[in-house]
Structures are given as structure tokens and as C-alpha cells.
Amino acid sequence: MKKLLLIFLLVSGTAFAGEAKPLAEDPALEARLKAMSQELRCLVCQNQTLADSDAPLAEDLRREIRTQMREGKSDQEVIDYLVARYGDFVRYRPPVNSHTALLWFGPFLLLFIGGFVLYRVLKKQASGERFEAED
Amino acid sequence: MNRAIKFLIPLILFLIAVGFLAKGLFLDPHEVPSPLVGKPAPRFQAPILGEGSKTFSSEEMKGKVWLLNVWASWCPACRDEHPVLMAMAKTGQIAIYGLDYKDTDAEAQAVLKEHGNPYNTVATDADGKIGIDYGVYGVPETYVIDKAGVIRYKQIGPITEEILLTKIVPLLKELER
To answer: Is the pLDDT score of A132 beyond 60?
Structure first.
């Protein structure tokens, strides 16, 4: 009886193992897809990456990316394809161009202004004057 | 005088910040500017809804100003937009073509039967592939395409009467000239 139970458990174990299908025929391509889709925005639920989203559009886009990768397109070519259709918004890392210049360089500009103001204040204090805005 | 200015500066900065935030309140983050406006409309060929093996090709529209309305029977916002499309079709000002996005023919036909059909022709995009080419990320979306086949305007979300009168009709008049 114990033997029979053991056999039953073993058999059911393999049955479960059989149900968990491999994720894809091509693990290398899936890894590439995963890495890329973590850099891309799902346009339906905008704060999710394409990798995380379950939205039908995200599924379609992942399928499209998979197809293009299978056709031998490079990551950059696939990203360009998506940007041409959905705009830079689809990328989580915005490219540096005239539209995004303020986004990229604004913080440095603020840092520079802050540094300048601090310099002026310290200089005035050092020379014994009370700080008074001149402009 | 100097002192007064010193106290005014933070107030002015504060008001500027309030101005930006107020503007941000009225922006819809779901309206992503389409890079396709000003570019040639992607070509496509797709089966016509309810016409079996016949297909519609975007090439047929060369030389005409037309509207491509992406819709689906499962999309509630499309139902809101439907009366506006019907009214537009009645005026005969513009050829409205539909793209039935990720839908089944039977359900799409049922909707058109029940609520009326504003479309000259409805092409079907069952797997959403044409939708990807047009950068569709939510239905309804509508494209105004000019005689040269260039996308001149993209409406994300339903066309309201206001959008129709203030944006689409003036643009059509300009394009038809």
C-alpha cells in the first residue's frame, strides 16, 4: 500500500512538472525581450514598463518586438520602430534633444544658480556686511 | 525699497510655480503627442467588415481628404463618439473610414446595425497590427489624412462636438482647398 502511494505521488509529481511549460523556445531571445521591455513604457498604464504590464496593447507590442527580433533586427532598430510610432514617450530614458534639454540640464542650471547665490552671500558675510539683496 | 523687493522675490517665484502646477492640472497625461502627425500615413491593406474576402487599401484614398477612425465594439468611449460621427457623416463633408480594432466581425456589425453606420467602409484589424503602425494605444483614435496621404491631425479619445467644430472642420476646409 505504501509502495502504491509512493508511486502515485511520484507520478503526480511528474504530471505537475509536465504542466509548467518552458517560457519560450528561445530563452536568449526572451532575455533580450525582457531587458528591452523594461526600458519601454506601456502606453496604456503609463507608469508601468512594457515588461510589467498585462494590458492587451503591451502584449501585442511584446509580440511585435519578439517577431522583429526573430527577423534579426537589432535592439536599436526595434526601439527606433517603436519611437517612430509612439514617440519618445515610449522610452523610459528620454533622449537628449532640443525638447528634453531643460529636463536634462535644468537641474545643473539650478545648481549653478544656487552655487552663485551662495558664493555671493558668503562673500558678503566674509567682508563683514549684512547680506542684502541688491537686485 | 530693497527690503520690499527681497520679500517680493519668494512671492513671485511662488506664483510662477503655481502657474506651472495649474497648467499641469489641466493637461491630460494620456494625450501623448503623436510623432506621426506630419508624416505619411502608414500604408495598409485589410479585409472589409462584412464583405468576406474583399480588402480595403489605404492607397485607394490617394488624392482625397479622409478620416480614419479607429474604433471597436468593446470600447465604451467609441459609443459616446458615435453620434458625432453619425452627424458628421450626414453632412457629407468628409469620407469617414473605420478601422475595427481587435474586434470580432459579428460584434462590430451588431453595433453598426443597432446604432447606425457612419462609415464609408470599415477595414478590420483583428490582431491590432495596423493599430501598432498607427501608434494606436487606446480607442477611439481618429486621424485626418490629406490628399497627399499625410497625417495632419490625430485625435486621441472621442471626438466631441467642440473638437469637431474648433479643430476638425476648420482643418478639413483648409485641406479641401
So the answer is: no
- pTM for the model: 0.74
- Name the residue among B9, B32, B35 with its Cβ closest to that of A43: B32
- Pick the residue of B6, B7, B27, B32 with the most A CBs within 10 A to test the interface with A by mutation: B32
Q: Which string of DSSP letters, residue by residue, matches A18-87?
A: HHS--S-S-HHHHHHHHHHHTSBB-SSSTTSBTTT---HHHHHHHHHHHHHHHTT--HHHHHHHHHHHH-
Q: What is the ipTM of this complex?
A: 0.73
| CATH code, B33-176 | 3.40.30.10
CA distances from B94 to A56, A84, A128, B164 (A): 32, 28, 76, 12
- What average pLDDT score do residues B86-93 get? 90
Q: Provide the pLDDT for residue B33.
A: 73
Distance from CA of A26 to the nearest CA of B (A): 23
Residue B128 and residue A44: Cβ atoms within 8 Å? no
